[in-house]
Amino acid sequence: MASSSNEGVQEVPGSYGLPILGAIADRFDYFVKEGVDAFFKNRIEKYKSTVFRVNMPPGSPLFPDPRVIILLDAKSFPILFDVSKVEKKNVFTGTYMPSTDFTGGYRVLSYLDPSEENHTKLKNFCFHVLKSNATKWFPEFERATGELWAKLDKQFAESGKAEYTSENLQMCFNFLCRSVLNRNPVDSGPASLGTNGPTYVQKWIGLQLAPIASTGVLPKILEEVTIHAVPLPFLLVRGDYNKVYDFFWTYGKEALDAAEQQFGLKRDEACHNLVFNICFNTFGGMFVFFPSLIEHLAAAGKQLHADLAEEVRSAIKDNGGMNMRALESMALVRSIVYEALRIEPPVPFQYGHAKEDLVVESHDGKYAVKKGEMLGGYQPFATRDPKVFDNPEEFLPRRFMGKEGENFLRYVLWSNGPETEETTVNNKQCAGKNFVVMISRLLVAHLFSHYDSFEIDQSKTTKVVFTSLQKATS
Known about the structure:
The protein is of the alpha+beta class.
């Protein structure tokens, strides 16, 4: 938070080091020597502060200014949501913004500040797409997860194990395309993607995030001298992206007509934004978060599974099926989704430039920030703040149940804003905030309407593989 009082204000600790060399050294520590969590923990210990200066990847010599004042607690972090204090222009991926070649030459909604006129048009367009397809979310998700369970059951019957992660990709992509475009992407016909859609999208996302992310596949030192050192060109995925764009252009007529007629947008700009919102933001979030959610559920054990199965099946029976009334009555399901979003948010970083001289206040001090300086925050540290949450590193399924639990929702920040606030055209909170929570709850509900319990291979770090799947007995 920002403080109105200057009493006791101090300089932000930390150093950026020598030009170019300091940024390279910090990037090496971040990716190779320490890893992300240790990188921040070590500097908290070094500076005795959760607010400090550091170079954030990708940095020198081929990327923009890497200097950031980093915020790592629940008290300082929320200033990153206050658009009266910070500018959010071109900071969606941090100090580095990928070329607009990846988005048809347009700065899409995620890179716009609310003060920009196009932000209002494009965010209202997002709201329209969500609202106009609202009647499809429940039936299409039930259809998509039904196909998913069938594939997993077949794999398990044949080999005694079933790989969730890859099947989840196609399930999520099918669900979104059917719901928004009224078209199954795997069906033959003009602009068909077959089963390649998720692969095309992953490659397109991967190149944009490569300078600030780890693949988990290549040796760390090799990543450091290749994908973290230079911006990767759109040319490498142009063919793949064009196929996805053509699919949305061909079957997104209803949405694109509305973009032109109701919101005054250029049709191609609207289409590039629709691809970004559905494929990068929504699909990208689902393929990161859903496996994480499954992992937490698997680790929680059979008693929780039994409790979930009872809650889900009773709600479905009492409300005449899987509908919004049934979903709203599933308090344990709801709490679990919020706890998973708290402990492992799918978008871990937030950034913004100070619009004016500020005083940023943490639990332990007040710090002077100059106009124009970049502020950034690593969200898992804010949402696992031990001064807010008991046992912050532990996944507690019932943490957000009851009146007391509800009080802590303001510290769940995954959507670029507190869970207790609503997204509007005047802020940068995720346009699909409520949608994401809803479909995550639906995933858990459908999972426990089909299965009594399950286990996963704990030795796998890059994929979720079921080693036990007990089908519902009632």
